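not sure who needs this but someone in the group chat was asking about Transcriptional regulator from Amycolatopsis decaplanina DSM 44594 so here u go. i didnt clean anything up, its just raw.
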Amino acid sequence: MTGDKDPGFRIGGRPLAERLAEVLPSLAKTVLSEIVSRIPEYRLLPAEELSGDITHVIEQNLRSFIDTLRTGATPTREELDFLRESAARRAEEGIPIDIVLTAYHIGIQVVWASLTPDARPDEVADVLAVNALTLRYLEVVTPAVGAGYLDERQTMFDDERSARHAVLSALLDGEPAEVAAGQAGLRLPPCYIVLAASVGAHPDEEVDGVDPLVAGRRKLRRLRVELERQIRGTVLTSLTPEGGIALLPHETAADELSTRDWARLERVLADVARTAGAEVFAATAAAEPSGVHVAARLAQDVLAVATAAGRPPGLYRLDDVLLEYQLSRPGPARDRLAIRLAPLEGNEELLQTLETFLRRGGRRQTAAALHVHPNTVDYRLRRVADLTGLDPTRLEHIALLNAALSARTATCRE
């Protein structure tokens, strides 16, 4: 302890520290009994642990408290280190932090309840002083216990995250993942639904005076929590605030996924986007664990095609972008399609008007989107027809123009 002056606290006519030291073994048993009685989680611990480690911690805590009463000083670093180590063991056992801290307070309550009935009228000042010193003791002990617990939990979390990342890396690299999964305590499911996501900015990320990094991390945390809440099993992710990859376990084989499964995934993604407070573009493909690396590449390609084609936020599969996907593959047909729009190169007004018209499906809708007069839209569309020989207002030319735009986008990305 720091300090050696005896405050001389007396209750029941005797020095308080001396009185507690005499009954320490029986007091420790009373504290243990009360903790077990009031905290269900402690009743689940092995009897050997209760009579051994837990009792030892209670006795040491009582000794520290008695020393505080004897000297008026708070526990030493060595005594606090003992309590930190004890809290770390509780973290390893999975006992929640609030339960651990409650046990310490119960110990103090038991001690206090054993003393106050014997207090005499002339000892009221000592009772009040001891109460204040008790609060000081808890003020020092509680953060130490919390820090020891949280440090261990962080270490456990880092180890768990590292083990899961090893599984994710093996799956995405096309390597056998069984060993890594076993080390991480995971069972590989029959199927993983691979989600390649692009996440838009949360409004807070664009507000002056708000740290965009903090806002982005908050968005990412909400996204992860909601995704893990909705998916059964362990979700493996490699996500940043801008997006990334998530592997969603599924108990159905990849080739047996139903329309209902995909519809549910769409609802999950909508909930995730709403919770994150940001637009989410995602593409998905399913595969058994050994095929995850191929499915991941496909999902990323589908995501790139869907966003390049101007699709709205949402979930996309290959079937949703078959034409655009095929046109994104190199080949002579794609090159010839892209050349059809070569006369428009350098004229962003015409290209933007054409893209908007094909997406919106009408001159007035296009004019509203571009903030121009409908007559301006008509003029620009006529210019497109004159330059390319393809008229956006003719039904037989629309499919070819859409294909040409997809081909142009694909070639521009290369």
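also The beta strands are 10-11, 14-15, 191-199, 236-240, 243-250, 280-287, 314-316. if thats useful
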